[in-house]
Every structure is written in C-alpha cells, then in structure tokens.
Amino acid sequence: MARYPAVDQLLGEAAEQTGLSDFGPGDFRDGLAVLLESLEHDGDLSPDADAAVLGDFRRRLVNRLQVEAWYAEHPEVDDVSVRGPVDIHGLPRTGTTALADMLSLDPQFRCLRGWEQGRPVPPPTRGNEADDPRRLEFIAAQERRSPDHRAMHIVEVDATMEDTDLLGMAFHGQQMMLPTPGYRDWWREADLTSTYQYHRRVVKLLGSRRPPDLWLFKAPHHKFHLDGLAAAYPDIRFVMTHRDPAKVVPSYTSLVSSIMPPADGERDLHGLGREICDHLRVGMEHAIEARRRIGEDRFLDVHHRDLVSDPKGTIQRIYAWLGFDLTPAVEQTILDWQQANRMGAAGAHRYTAEQFGLSAAQIRSDYDFYIRHFDVTLEG
Fold first, then answer.
1. Cβ(122)–Cβ(206) below 8 Å
2. Residue 104 · residue 159 · CB < 8 Å
3. What is the DSSP letter of 217?
4. Three-state SS at 371
5. May I ask which residue range the UniProt record assigns to the signal sequence (predicted)?
6. How many Cα atoms occupy the beta-carbon half-sphere of 172 within 13 Å?
7. 3-state DSSP call for residue 113?
8. Chain segment 202-243, per-residue pLDDT in tens
9. Less packed terminus of the chain by CB within 10 Å, N or C?
10. Which helix (H) or strand (E) covers residue 305, if one does?
C-alpha cells in the first residue's frame, strides 16, 4: 500500500475544502506526481512528518483554486503592470539574501515577501499590511526560530524572499526542504516556461492592490532555469552573486540539513552533501549556458568579497548599472542595515565540509569551471 496519496486524491480534497474546481493553467499535475513518487521511493522522512508535508501540498492546491476564483471575480488583474524585475541569484550563501535585504529597503522596489506568498488571496493592500494576519503569523514564526537558525540565515519580514511558495504552487520548485533527490533530478532538466508564466500570474495578483510595480526578486535556484524566467519577464535584469564554492557548498548543506523534517532513523549526511554538491554544480552549468543565450549585457556580477569589504561602492555600482536613482537617505539606510547585520552579527554558523563527506579541495576541483569563468576569489 502506498504511503502517500495520489495526485487526484489531493486535488479532490482541495476542491472539496474550497468548493472550487478551477486549478488554473500549467503542468502542475506532472510536478506533483513526480514529487509524490520521489517521496515514496527516495524519501527518508519520519512518518510523523507526513501530515505537515501533505498539508503544505494541500495549501498550495487551495491557493491555486483561490487565485483562479479571484481572477474570475476581478478580471482587471490581468492588466496589472509588472515592471522589471531585478533578479538576484547565484549559488546560495554568496550574499543573495544580504543584497536582497539591502535593496528591499528602497521603496521604489516592490518586494516579493514570504508572508504574502504563503496565502496570496486576497492580495495585500498597503494601508492594511501592518495588521495583516499573514504578516503577523510570519513574524510570530520567525520569533520562534532558534539562535542557531538566526545565525545561519537572516530573515527580514518585508524583504523580498525566495519564491518557494509561488513555484511550489506550480509544483515545479526546488524542494530543498524535502529529501527527494529523484524529484530534483527531474526538476533540474524540466521545462519551466509555463511555470514562470504562472509565476507572473500570481505576481500580478499580489501587486494589484499594492504598488509600486517595479519588482525585486531573489532566489538562488533561479540559476537553473533562467530561460524560462526571462521568457515570462522579458525586461528582467539579473544580478548574480559569487563566492568560493568551498565555503558555499558545506554552508548550504548545513542549512538544508537543519530545515529538513526529521528522518525515519539517521539521515545520511554524507549522501546529502554529495547530492547538494552535484546539484548546485549542475545549476551553475545551466546558468552559464543560459547567460550566453539571454545576453551577458543583462547580467551584473557581484562578488561576496566586495559586498563585505566595500558595501557602499558595491551598492553604487549596482544602481549605476541599473540606471536607478540612489537617494542619500536610501543609501544611508542600506549602509546602516549592512553594518548592523554584518557577517557574524547574529552569531557564528558552525560547520565543516568533512561532516558532509566533502573537502575543500574536492569541491574546488568540481567547480573549477565556475571559479575560472567568474574569477572567483578562494578564501582561506
């Protein structure tokens, strides 16, 4: 007997819960089927985690139904303007979050916030955001994070965040919080053209009552499917961050291992380390190839060392490249944030490559093409 339900069962439950039947466009059923199959055959989850995992799937299906119902009642949403966006991506743990948090302080950007992604309907309105129950729930959840998690990863409630839930609603997200290597094998090579068209559909809804319309995105996983993202957002421009992969890979593996639900027994951390090392390498290979097709003029490279050692100069260079105004007040706000949140300010994130079956030499050998291509500085 299968441990996890079939696709049709989950769709039926979401439809029954809402009284709605239109799940909207795209090939989300394919992704959901592969994800369920991978959980069944690859996963090491404790049975105690099943209810929460399946609850997330149902929530995202309910979100899809509610998005289509909202469009049916408010067809004018389809005409909402989406300018930009500016997209920050790269290998994880290279400064994507810090840079996104800094740019999110500029009110000319519309940020894709975590709290509105989890339940996009109804779309937020500026005057009511402070008391929006979704935002208050998000704040409460962040306050429950452990000191170790705070040291690993900064979370700003109103900054732009990874589009995990938007891609999750299409069931074409990376799913790094689940032990599903088979799904990720499929996802890396999947065509996300329709996924990002759906992504734009939800972004328009979220922006329909909350200007401005110049969007700021941030997601390291965008590097896997830049062509699909550029097709959905033809005016998009990319800021790509870089850092020594010998620092990146074990740090990210440590983060992922800490946020995955409990395993049924002992999780194979060496296997997880190998998977993540290979996974991120393939993503960078995809990104380099896609940049050639999209056009290098639409990409700005930012190195972690520069963001840390010269935040003011780095921010000024980004704004000059974008052709956007950087007011003195916004610049000072950004620099104040950077000083308050400099590396180590929330505590030390402790890990080693060896605890995940990796070594600095092996990682740098695997990523030699990346180090040479972008002239990445190696760290001691």
1. no
2. yes
3. E
4. helix
5. none
6. 23
7. coil
8. 999 999 999 999 999 999 999 999 999 999 999 999 999 999
9. N
10. helix 304-309
Token pair, residue 369, equals 């093409």
Distances (CA, A) of 277 to 226, 253, 376: 20, 8, 17
**Smallest Cα–Cα separation from 10: which of 36, 43, 34, 47?**
36
174: phi then psi, degrees, rounded to nearest 5: -70, -30
Which tokens is 205 given?
A: 């809804």
Handedness of CA 338, 339, 342, 347 (dihedral sign): negative
pLDDT in tens, 145-166: 777 666 666 789 999 999 999 9
- Per DSSP, the three-state class of 290 is helix
Helix/strand number for the chain, H first, E second = 18, 5
Q: Which of 118, 139, 121 is nearest to 130 (CA)?
A: 139
Distance of CA 72 to the CA centre of its chain: 28
pLDDT digits (tens, 9 = 90+) for 34-80: 999 999 999 899 999 999 999 999 999 999 999 999 999 999 999 99
Which stretches of 79-155 are assigned E, i.e. beta strand? 83-90, 110-111
Q: How many CB atoms lie within 10 A of CB 48?
A: 10
Backbone angles phi, psi at 17, to 5 degrees: -65, -35
Instruction: Please say whether the beta carbons of 238 and 219 come within 8 A.
Output: no
Q: What is the DSSP string of 69-100?
A: HHHHH-GGGGG---EEEEEEEESTTSSHHHHH
End-to-end CA, the chain: 52
Q: Which domains does the chain have, with CATH numbers?
A: 81-374 (3.40.50.300)
CA 176 to chain centre: 10
- The amino acid present at 192, given as its one-letter code, is L
On whether the CB atoms of residues 357 and 269 are closer than 8 A, the answer is: yes
Please state, in angstroms and rounded to a whole number, the distance separating the CA atoms of residues 183 and 194: 18
Q: Which amino acid is at 16?
A: E
Angle at 116 between CA 112 and CA 120, to 5 degrees: 110
Strand 214-218 and strand 237-242: the pairing is unpaired
